[in-house]
Amino acid sequence: MYNEVFSGFMGSGDDYESAAAVIIGAPMDQTTSFRPGTRHGPRQIRSVSEVLEEYSPRLDRDLADIRYTDLGDVAVVPGQVEESLDRIARSATRVLKDGKVLFLLGGEHLVSLPAVQSAAGLHPGLAVIHFDAHADLREMYLGMRLSHATVMRRVAEIIGGDNVYQFGVRSGTREEFSYARSAVNFHDLLKAEEVALAAEKLRGRPVYITLDIDVLDPAYAPGTGTPEPGGCSPLELFSALEALAGLKVVGFDLVEVCPPFDPSQRTAVLAAKLLREALLLFTD
Question: E strands along 27-168, which residues?
Fold first, then answer.
């Protein structure tokens, strides 16, 4: 099920049974619509993580304080979208059934769909918090229902649009924005205050967080497949994640890092730091 050779995320242990959190890579890159290469995201995020410290001064927590393991990448099948999604779903279901917090590294944004499906099946009343430059609410894209451009529409169909909370969205079709404003909890800006208000509504409920790296302005994260100017800063995004502290987070994913378009690797380093903060925020 998993590719055998990989370098785990910094500080990760090898004891699955005692782990409270589990990292899985989903190097799927089959429906990207502009610049391909997100399949290399999980490996590079892990590789560059060694430049960071395990201690977070913002949170005053250390990765040594939590138990987590990295299982490596799901062996997705090039050219086979549904089979790849099924393999991701089986991996996610195993982790979630075992009562562990899932941390999924993409890969294109469509990899969030099977993880959310698994979480919704095991956690009734699931809400999804979505950070992204793009609405991803198209009914179809290039004749396909399964695409990184339709993933949140499929998520809304699974859990209900009133359980979807979107932040930072600044790109989409007229139809997507009309749907977003009428069917989901839509925020075109990313403000920690608005995220905190949503968090208050979700206290006690199971929550899945999906973070597309392009919610950040491409000045900070150029290594992504569909860069969109006008995004937030890293500090704004860190503050937004911190506003979610204390929620019952069952899963978190970080998607759309596209290494071929950032030779500086700063996008992957930022992604690794976001993953570190998320591990510390959402793992007991």
Answer: 55-56, 61-62, 68-73, 101-106, 127-131, 164-167
Please, what is the end-to-end C-alpha distance for the chain in angstroms?
A: 28
Decide: 145 and 118 in contact? Cβ < 8 Å: no
Task: Give the pLDDT of residue 2.
Answer: 57
Q: Where are the domains of the chain?
A: 21-282
Instruction: Tell me how far apart the alpha carbons of residues 166 and 54 are, in angstroms, rounded to a whole number.
Output: 30
Predicted local distance difference test score (pLDDT) of residue 120? 98
Whether residue 167 is predicted with pLDDT greater than 80 in this model: the reply is: yes
Q: Would you identify the CATH topology of the domain 21-282?
A: Arginase; Chain A (3.40.800)
Q: Which of 110, 74, 108, 111 is nearest to 214 (CA)?
A: 108
Q: Name the strands in the sheet holding 101-106, side by side, starting at the edge strand that comes first in the sequence.
A: 68-73, 21-26, 101-106, 248-255, 206-212, 127-131, 164-167, 185-187
Over the stretch 205-233, which tens digit does the pLDDT of each residue have? Answer: 999 999 999 999 999 999 999 999 999 99
Query: How would residue 83 be classed by pLDDT, with cut points 50, 70 and 90?
Result: very high
d(CA 68, CA 51): 19
In this prediction, residue 7 carries a pLDDT of: 73
Of residues 203, 220, 211, 180, the one with CA closest to residue 279: 211
> Which of 122, 107, 93, 96 has its CA nearest to residue 3?
107
Contact present, 49 and 276 (Cβ < 8 Å): yes
Residue 43 C-beta-side C-alpha neighbours within 13 Å: 15
Q: Which of 147, 18, 144, 26 is nearest to 90 (CA)?
A: 26
